[in-house]
From TrEMBL:
NCBIfam families: rrf2_super (TIGR00738). This is Rrf2 family transcriptional regulator. PROSITE patterns: HTH_RRF2_1 (PS01332), HTH_RRF2_2 (PS51197). It comes from Metasolibacillus meyeri. Pfam families: Rrf2. It comes from the Bacteria. GO terms for cellular component: cytosol. InterPro entries: TR_Rrf2-type_CS, Tscrpt_reg_Rrf2, WH-like_DNA-bd_sf, WH_DNA-bd_sf. One of its GO terms (molecular function) is DNA-binding transcription factor activity. The lineage of its organism: Bacteria, Bacillati, Bacillota, Bacilli, Bacillales.
Length: 133
């Protein structure tokens, strides 16, 4: 099981945006430079985050991105679902009712989702901010 690089960059981008003053906009170029990414590649990730309602995009020369929701509402799972989708990691290849293997795998996924939902990005942002002071 492995998350894509896009999810890694999305999580880091969200933390970077959370460290910005409220309602300030950050351009794609600046966000891309923070992670040594191409702005074109990051734009695709930002589009997914915007479609999920996690960030807002303001077009134009003075435009950019900012957090769209209350910072204390955004979990790791929200960002992962925005980039990876909300599909099951395991799909039983033998279709029979009451598959015990599928039941174990489904429960493990639910436990992982619950853990990721309980972890808020703002907590990571605050920790990162305190280390850089």
């Amino acid at each position: 099981m492995r998350y894509s690089k896009a999810t890694n960059f999305a999580l880091h981008t969200m933390v970077n945006l959370m460290l910005q003053p409220r309602d300030s906009l950050v351009g794609v170029q600046e966000l891309a430079e923070m992670q040594h990414l191409s702005p074109t590649y990051l734009s695709k990730i930002l589009t997914k985050l915007a479609k999920a309602g996690l960030i807002e995009s303001t077009p134009g020369a003075k435009g950019g991105y900012k957090i769209a929701r209350t910072k204390h509402e955004i979990s790791f799972l929200d960002v992962i679902n925005a980039t990876e989708g909300d599909t099951s990691l395991f799909d039983c290849s033998i279709h029979h009712e009451g598959c015990l293997i599928e039941k174990v795998m489904w429960q493990a996924e639910e436990n992982m989702k619950s853990e990721l939902k309980s972890k808020l990005l703002i907590d990571i942002a605050k920790e990162a901010e305190s280390k850089h002071k």
